[in-house]
Amino acid sequence: MTAAKGAxxxxxxxxxxxxxxxxxxxxxxxVARGAVLLxxxxxxxxxxxxxxxxxxxxxxxxxxxxxxASEAFPSDLGERAxxxxxxxxxxxxxxxxxxxxxxxxxxxxxxxxALLADASLFARDLRGSGEWRALGSSLAGVxxxxxxxxxxxxxxxxxxxxxxxxxxxYDARLAALVWRRxxxxxxxxxxxxxxxxxxxxxxxxxxxxxxxxxxxGPPTFVPWRKMSAPPRGYTGIxxxxxxxxxxxxxxxxxxxxxxxxxxxxxxxxGGAGGRVYRRGVASVLAPGDRVRxxxxxxxxxxAGDLALRHDRVGVFMVRAGDSVHARALxxxxxxxxxxxxxxxxxxxxxxxLxxxxxIESALPATHEALRAELFAHPRSRGASRLRTLxxxxxx
Length: 395
Fold this sequence. Notes:
By secondary structure, the protein is α+β, with helices and mostly antiparallel strands. The protein is 56% helix and 11% strand. The protein has four domains: 2-52, no CATH class; 80-222 and 241-256; 264-332; 335-394, no CATH class.
């Protein structure tokens, strides 16, 4: 059956080629008019439907959206898809700038509300740009929750990633937004690990594309230089030859993205032990092991309490059957250790570089104290360094 379809397609191509060659040799324009054009379109459509492979149902395409993401480079991310990504990049850049301004220390509530309203306008503007419509709607919903102080659901955050990757839009700031918003959402360890695996893959693809642009060159605007009007659908975006291949190669050679490596904390396992989820896969934690907990990792206690000790910060106790992720780790310290962390941050705010180094080595445990210090003393001697560390953890 497949051979018959191939033969039919070859016959159609041969007929069209002969017709075009005949018109060229006779010096006639290659134009079909009226009823001839309508019949030709009808026949071509029927043939295309007959010989095209059947696509899977939409339910089959979406069946794996809630499971852990595949580790492979996206198969649908080609040159045309990259061209679509470039067209919406400027609008997203404007949105991120407005959100950065809204997070600046010292803002009044009214000023922050106004900036978040502007960010929502950027997201709504994306909804009117064709293939970016679904992503714009998802972003607008999340930003409305930010303005209202409401939490997102796990399904809404997964949908935001779905819409971004179907657009496509691989953006580290967008992945970081999903990660931050997921911090307060109630999930099981397996659910959070699956969402974190998706975020990690998104970030690795983003970094692979950035590395490929450094090797091959970024997409550029190619102006239409002819006297005639450009063809329908012309965007002017030129994707360098070999960019996608270079991105695939970089992705295959990447063990972890820069985002996954930064902002981690080294801990010693104690108590009854447990397990850590990394890229959706669980590994056993035995007492005495040293484990590096990154921003996308999830730690779960086993049948007994799990103790995680940092040399300078203290011990984090995870109760039997509970789980913890990087943004919530600071909440497991006892009150005495909380005061010690705040004192350490205060010293760094006054310019103590040794205290700053300790804070950097334990960002999952110190980021809350950093926020409080920057809110209270935004213009202190070491505020710029603290702000850099906090941005490193959040973005």
